[in-house]
Design goal:
By secondary structure, this protein is of the alpha/beta class. The chain has 15 helices and 23 strands. The chain binds shikimate-3-phosphate. Shikimate-3-phosphate binds near residues 167, 172, 194 and 315.
Length: about 425
């Protein structure tokens, strides 16, 4: 599907971003292994989270979709999952495949996990190797590095493991496995990644302690308590509007009910460092997560350096930030972000090549990019590479560019933000 976006004179209005994708996956998975009923409001209904629900149902979990966005999960207990009768398909979702691989490595039955062409090309040794060290029997395509994965689960031991890259998917997979191990599992990360799994599990009764030596996960001593919650709005979805408003000459957007967990809110810090006018209001807590309204005004942006421990805090927002960098004064450097090459697409290459079609001056680096300001982006034909975040990044670029931008593969937004085009039509005046 192609979608055409035009330069807009004004950006005004209020947007309630969809429920957080990372938290939605976890709310479904963790409640499925808890004992008792939980209600999850504002559950993300994009294709990724629905893939998680489908896989859990195939494993015997009882999950009911009440109305759009509300999920009722009948947790069947920590040993309640059953062998699926068919291959489990995670579609485009790395979080589904990696978190379930960790959980299924601990279950005393056989599972096969696969995904679409993008997911089947993404690296899995980062979970396979430590899970094997815990005693799991896992085989994968391409010498045990790519899905499909075949898992003969059960009988795990606790390990101490240092993650080669900061990754919440890996940390969460090993945490889930660690809940079923015979001894403590200790996980060290080069920099902190999103901590939704730990937050939820603690509230549900698991013994998980973050300290100097890493994250210490104790084997479950009893059942997990179900956790009913309202899922915060997804800051990774809000990021597109934050960039659009900050870089547009006549904008004011209010983003309501957005998750502002510090392990996810690097986009706010990066945009503020660039000079963006961002106000945070009505700070509150939903479940175990901080939430706020975010108001963004037109701003004069300057280039910045985005690197180090900031990267995992905004890892999915770098393509959108690249658009802001194009329209900021001077140069922006993104480094330490080689992980972007193994996301739903190679996001360094795809962001650079697609934004160049609109006149951007971006050089690729192995671990990031260098972006020079341009006076104005120019509308052009471009494509999403089948990547939801690229599709939305290009839509934002199109709103800010002169003339008309046509985005091929625009349906990719369905992965995480089904109402994206409607929201755009509402605020682009
Ligand atoms: C996610 C973690 C990040 C992120 C992805 C969602 C999660 O991936 O890019 O969109 O829900 O844990 P990595 O953990 O691989 O960095």
């Amino acid at each position: 599907m192609k979608r055409t976006v035009r330069a807009t004179r004004r950006l005004r209005g209020t947007i309630e971003p969809p429920g957080d994708k990372s938290i939605s996956h976890r709310a479904a998975i963790l409640n499925a292994i808890a004992s008792g009923e939980a209600t999850v409001d504002n559950f993300q209904t994009g294709a990724d989270c629905l893939a998680t629900v489908r896989c859990l149902r195939a494993l015997g979990a009882r999950i009911e979709s009440l109305a759009t966005g509300t999920l009722r999960v009948q947790g069947s207990g920590r040993f309640g999952l059953r062998e699926a009768a068919a291959v489990l398909n995670a579609a485009n979702s790395g979080t589904t495949l990696r978190l379930l691989a960790g959980l299924l490595a601990a279950q005393p039955f056989f599972s096969v996990l696969t995904g679409d062409a993008s997911l089947r090309s993404r690296p899995m040794e980062r979970i396979i190797e430590p899970l094997r060290a815990m005693g799991a029997r896992i085989q994968g395509r391409a010498g045990g590095t790519r899905p499909p994965l075949a898992i003969d689960g059960g009988g795990l031991r606790g390990i101490r493991h240092r993650l080669p890259v900061a990754s919440a998917q890996v940390k969460s997979a090993l945490t889930l496995a660690g809940l079923y191990a015979d001894d403590e599992t200790v996980l060290e990360e080069p920099a902190p990644s999103r901590d939704h799994t730990e937050r939820m599990l603690r509230v549900m009764g698991a013994a998980i302690v973050a300290g100097e030596g890493g994250l210490r996960v104790s084997p479950l001593a009893g059942e997990l308590t179900p956790l009913s919650l309202r899922v915060p709005g997804d800051i990774s979805a809000a990021a597109f509007w934050m960039v659009a408003a900050a870089a547009h000459p006549d904008a004011e957007l209010r983003l309501t009910g957005v998750g502002v967990n510090p392990s996810r809110s690097g986009i706010i810090d990066a945009l503020r460092a660039m000079g963006a006018r961002i106000a945070i209001e009505k700070e509150r807590t939903w479940g175990c997560e901080p939430v706020a309204d975010i108001i963004v005004h037109s701003s004069r942006l300057q280039g910045t350096v985005i690197e180090g421990a900031l990267i995992p805090r905004l890892v999915d927002e770098v393509p959108a930030l690249a658009v802001a960098a194009c329209l900021a004064e001077g140069e922006t450097v993104v480094r330490d972000a080689g992980e972007l090459r193994v996301k739903e697409s190679d996001r360094i290459r795809a962001t650079a090549s697609e934004l160049r079609r609109l006149g951007a001056r971006i050089q690729e680096r192995p671990d990031g990019m260098v972006i020079q300001a341009v006076d104005r982006l120019r509308g052009a034909a471009c494509g999403s590479h089948g990547d939801h975040r690229l599709a939305m990044t290009l839509a934002v670029a199109g709103v800010l560019a002169a003339g008309e931008t046509t985005i091929g593969g625009a349906e990719a937004v369905e992965i995480s933000y089904s109402s994206f085009w409607n929201d755009l039509d509402r605020v682009a005046l």
